[in-house]
Amino acid sequence: MSDGPRGGVAGAAPARFREAVRDAVDRGLGFLEAAIRADGAWASRIYRNLDLTGPSQDEHPPFVAGLGALTLEACGDPRSRSIRDRSGMYVVRSMRYPGTWRYWPSLPRDLDSLSVCSQAVRWHPWVLFGANLGLLPAAQDERGRFRTWIAPPAESNVADSVVNANVVGYLALLGRNEIGERAAAWLAGLIRDGNAAGTSHYYPDTIDLYDAVARARGRGVPAFEDLGTLLVDRIRARRGTDGGYGDTLRTARALSALHVLGAPPAGDGLWAALERILSRQRPDGSWPEHRYWQGPLPPNPPTVGFGCAMLDTASCIEALVRSVPVPAPGA
After folding, report:
1. What does the pLDDT look like over 107-161, one tens digit per residue?
2. What domains sit in the chain, N to C, each tagged with a CATH number?
3. CA geometry: angle at 189 spanning 201 and 163, to 5°?
4. Is the full-model pTM beyond 0.90?
């Protein structure tokens, strides 16, 4: 299946896609408005297996609200702004000086939450002035890679590739690329050499890494500047005959990453991916949850799955509005 010529995505969209996307985004935002807690918390669920089956336990980590707010930034609908504002306030209320968060209260502070939540509330003075940057050098290993947890080195405190991509993206946002220079070089090498698989303990799919690196590249990470074409090729190689790039969540993340990289699919390649996403939306406006993260901590193998229908929904909304921009109400 050919991607077709680049450019002109919105203008080239058949009318049936424009209307279907408008309706899907409207219903998706309606679901999120109803699902987000009054204080701005996003709900995710933890399962005692990787298939996300059987009993689950609800959780409301600030990381999830932060990632949700970032994911919705591409959506210009006023409801998206309201959701992001509420989410941001929850993230801020969960913050501890000098700008750190815990995924759970029982866990140490972690760099994934620090980098994602800081980007989501980059207007906060602690973030604007880089108050938490002083914590990062001590969290680096001998190769300059960032360990996941802000804690003394231990067997379970490994350098996770997706976590590192999120950290260097945050550093680029603040114009402090020098702190993460060696970590960024490590990530760039993984992608150039085709060695990305298995380098993340907490994220189950290489699309997660490609997406995180693509977004960090957009923030201005020098080591990622020449990775654009290679990232596009790596992501496109994942496309199946049905137009998807794995499960619905990875299809949405892959599609958004390609837009961020300036090389979205076009023509039949785009319509097939959109069909895949649109067909999975549920009657309540949400999309089904897929495994976003996994645990427990290394060296134990992953046996616990984390899912969040709210984040799947936000990811699908992002992919849809990037592919076929939806005018704001009244526009």
Report:
1. 999 999 999 999 999 999 999 999 999 999 999 999 999 999 998 778 899 999 9
2. 22-323 (1.50.10.20)
3. 30
4. yes
